[in-house]
Known about the structure:
The structure holds 2 protein chains of 2 kinds. Chain A is an alpha/beta fold. Chain A has 2 domains: 7-97 and 276-333, D-Maltodextrin-Binding Protein, domain 2; 99-249 and 263-274, D-Maltodextrin-Binding Protein, domain 2 (3-Layer(aba) Sandwich), CATH 3.40.190. Chain A has 14 helices and 11 strands. Chain A has an 8-stranded mixed β-sheet. The N and C termini of chain A lie far apart (49 Å). Chain B is mainly alpha-helical. Chain B is 73% helix and 0% strand. In chain B, helix 4 runs parallel beside helix 7, helix 5 packs across helix 7 (157-181) and helix 6 packs across helix 7 (157-181).
Amino acid sequence: MKFATTALAIGLAGFIGAAQAQQITGAGATFPAPVYAKWGEAAKAASGMELNYQAIGSGGGQNQITNRTVDFGASDAPMDPAKLESAKLLQFPSVMGAVVIIVNLPGVASNQLKIDGPMLAEIYQGKITKWNDPKIVEMNRGVTLPNRAIAPVYRADGSGTTFVYASYLAAVDETWKTKVGVATSVKWPTGAGAKGNDGVAATVQNTQGAIGYVEYAYAKLNKLPTVQLRNKAGQFVSPSAESFSAAASQGDWAGAKNYAVNLIDLAGEKSWPIVSATFILVPRDPKEPQRVANVLKFFDWVYQNGDPIAVNMEYTPLPAGVKAAVRSTWRNELKGPDGKPLS
Amino acid sequence: MSATTMGSGAIPGPAKDEKTSLALGRSRHRANVIVKTLCVAATLIGLVFLASILFTLLWRGIGGLSLAVFTTSTLPPGSNGGLLNAIVGSLIQTVLGAAIGTPIGLMVGTYLAEYAQNSTLGNAVRFVSDVLLSAPSILIGLFVYTLLVEPFDGFSGIAGCLALAVIVIPIVVRTTEDMLRLIPNTLREAVIGLGAPKWKMITLVCYRAAREGIATGVLLAIARVAGETAPLLFTSLGNLNWSVDLTKPMASLPVTIYQYAGSAFEDWVQLAWAGALLITFGVLAINIIARVVLRGGK
Lengths: 343, 298
């Protein structure tokens, strides 16, 4: 009996102790999950806020915040404006990232191979099928290309990465736009599917002649051979923090509704063509305003202090002007029941 | 088969002469050898898979096991995190889930075996329970999600416990009923004959006689739910931080493994293997305990 009482007391103490910390629960996109976790760790040390972010996928993030089961949702693909409206959500960007092309061609070094968008679209439509296709050879004089079949690999699961990649193919290829389209999962004309970035990477690594698309952090950390892409200005660029920032600075942030900015295939000599922002969704009509206020407090801390962590983890921070604009959106559009701004 | 050796039109029966009897014996022997070979081959295939799974787990998991795995909670990549919150979360949810599900399963099983052997209601309950037993666990997760997560504005550890409890119930129902039915009716008649009421017969005699079997069923149910991922994804969600608050999202080993195994970071992947090793050997230990308990009863 005495033991039971003690156990109960300890249990209660733990219960209360845990309840005291400010806990923010978010769920959604897989792509920014590592940087959110790292930001959470740093913010906890600095301000005592505890972030619990669960990577359940962009679609899941949109659904869960619509059902109000989490404090914020996260999505790589900007949410449809009509859905944002009906679900009473506010959308703002948190960080940017890039999609890169990985290949498995023995004898060809990373960033040695050069290709362009229309060629990628043709590869993924089964129109270019050999690595020694005249179009690829023409673009890569001096590189020995094998007479090997190209094996395109795509994400079999619904994914923000697919959305970004398909957006790029649709931007550079009219047939892709009309026949395949843009979504978190599309009907791929050819190729093999794999689950997650890790699945695509593993399939490409195990298949000679394979080509795939993954998030940059993935390619960099796993030392996967990437390729150079030709951007809108006609320049070949390698994937790097500089080429991503160059693209970000070209974005029309001011003109984008709900911050759903297009960072695909932008002008600029140094711009990497497949860049995207990832988004946070918070309710405009919170039952418990304090929970939204906590989310805003966290991302305010991130905007202020999070850039070095993001850069360190191969993500691209938002331009300062965008952060200022988002902060004023918070102040103007998210108000508590007393009419005072939540941030 | 024997009909063909007996000539046309004959009814199968004992062989009439030595020759046909020998032929029959040989064909039976042949069939026996074929079936035995197939059985041994199937067993070997199963064993090879089990051994290779265990070997791979040991090979990849042991490197990731360290004291830090048990003393630190999950941290971002590169911060030397552990699995403490996931281990504790899994323990809490499994134990509470079993604690909620076992009494219900026990009572339903008792009802089916002792009160409703051939009644329509009993058959209906048995059928529903068997359907539940084979229902995909993701459905149970979704069920608890619509029942407890959506209406109460958030994922919580208690929702995870209840999802696991729903999985535990039909397993315990089935084993309890089966074990109680093994008890000879003469025993029951003897107790009633001594003037004991029915509830005393069940609690003092039947439960005592079926104790080991019922305990085994409960342990097997715990082993089953300890490794469940799908029902927890929709209920307790997962938690990056240390939390034992049942009203907040709660970490668990299977969900952490699910997220870490596919990540880009070497240390997370390593932790996923270590977690998989822990859970496999935990479940293996429960299974072995269940076996020992069962044998102790015989």
